[in-house]
Each structure stands twice: as structure tokens, then as C-alpha cells.
Amino acid sequence: MFWNENRHCGGNLFRMKQFKAVGGYSEEFINWGCEDSDLQWKFSQLYHLQFFPENLEVIHLDHPKGYFSPEMWAKNEEISRRRIEEGLERVIERDRRKI
């Protein structure tokens, strides 16, 4: 059994100038969900970073989220889909205005 509050479960590492170059986190997302993936998408497009190396096995330990809302998640996934469809340059330009 793992207690989530006692260990770090993931993160991103970058320079502040890189964070500002991609426009930081988007404020479009509701509560939690998709903002980390969106930031990683922008980094992968601008800096050609990969999410995971192909030879890396990723194990995700599922855990209950009492505050999970299927409706909120669906809205965030739609925001994510729309942002990707809109394109990197337009998304970053809009996000930079909010930093």
C-alpha cells in the first residue's frame, strides 16, 4: 500500500524561460485534470520532448478520487481536444497573455 501524501508521484522539470516560452499552464481547464498533459503537449511540440521513452514501463497505481467529476473531466478533455486542434502557436500566444 502506498500513501500518496508521503511520496512524489510525478513532475515536470524545466527552466523558467522555457515555461514562459510555452505560456505556462493554461487557465482554461476546470479544477484539476488535463492541465499537466496540456503543458507536456506544448513542451513536446516546442522542444521535441517525448512523454515516455519507448522502452520504459509505466505503472500507474490507481487511487480513489472523491472529488472526481465525470462532467468536469469531459469538459476538460473537450478543452484539450480543441486546443490541440487550434494549434500550438495560437494556444501559446493566448496562454502567454495570462502570465
Summarize the structure.
The chain has 99 residues and is an all-alpha fold. It has one domain (11-53, 63-96). The chain has helices spanning 16-21, 35-47, 70-86, 88-96.
Distance between the termini: 39 Å
Please give the count of helices: 4
Main sheet specs: none
Total number of beta strands = 0
* Low-pLDDT segments, ≥5 res: none
The topology string of helices and strands comes to HHHH
- The value of Rg in angstroms is 15 Å
Determine the structural class based on helices, strands and strand pairing.
Answer: mainly alpha
Shape: globular
Question: Which whole number gives the mean pLDDT?
Answer: 80
Number of domains: 1
| Share of residues in strands | under 5%
* Helical residues, percent: 40-55%
Question: What does the model show?
Answer:
With 99 residues, the protein is an all-alpha fold. The protein has one domain (11-53, 63-96). The chain is 45% helix and 0% strand. The mean pLDDT is 80.
